[in-house]
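Lab notebook, design round three. We kept the backbone fixed and only want residue identities now. Task for the bench partner: fill in a sequence for the structure below.
Input structure tokens:
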């Protein structure tokens, strides 16, 4: 009889712990970082400047860093080697390419400004061969900048494995922009 009583005492104790464990688990699962929402606090990065349509300069962990937006490619906003290469590949005039690049950069400047807090999400690689950070940039309202630029029609898709986390999402935004002649697509 004494052994039986010890068993019931242990059983009762474990059942008291289960509701607490369940509530704690629910709290962890529904926390902002687990539910897909981004948290913005004093550890957020800060925009220093918009370099062009797909590159920003930010303050990241107390250091000035360039960040290349993953998954997208905007026209070059300056006459350089890549702009000349893009002009040859697309049979467009170099001045046209640079003009479109400036328009894309101007659009990005309407979305993000120096001093704005941003949250950076990294994919498989955190840096490119030039040492720039590679990331998905989220604005303070939770909007993903990369996707917004594509959706507005100011970027082509540029996916390089292994950084392919949102390629399907970007593809839908790209088709939507092209189908509705948004941004640069209204110029062609």
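Proposed sequence:
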């Amino acid at each position: 009889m004494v052994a039986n009583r010890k068993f019931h005492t242990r059983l009762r104790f474990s059942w008291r712990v289960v509701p607490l464990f369940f509530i704690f688990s629910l709290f962890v699962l529904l926390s902002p970082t687990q539910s897909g929402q981004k948290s913005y606090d004093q550890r957020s990065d800060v925009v220093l400047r918009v370099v062009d349509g797909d590159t920003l300069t930010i303050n990241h962990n107390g250091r000035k860093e360039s960040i290349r937006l993953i998954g997208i490619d905007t026209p070059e906003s300056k006459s350089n080697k890549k702009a000349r290469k893009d002009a040859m590949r697309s049979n467009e005039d170099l001045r046209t390419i640079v003009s479109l690049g400036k328009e894309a950069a101007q659009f990005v400047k309407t979305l993000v400004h120096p001093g704005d807090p941003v949250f950076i999400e990294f994919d498989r690689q955190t840096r490119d061969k030039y040492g720039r950070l590679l990331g998905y940039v989220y604005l303070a309202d939770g909007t993903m900048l990369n996707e917004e630029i594509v959706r507005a029609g100011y970027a082509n898709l540029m996916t390089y494995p292994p950084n392919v986390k949102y390629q399907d999402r970007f593809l839908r935004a790209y088709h939507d922009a092209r189908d509705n002649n948004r941004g640069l697509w209204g110029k062609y």
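Keep this in mind before ordering anything: The chain has one domain: 45-187.
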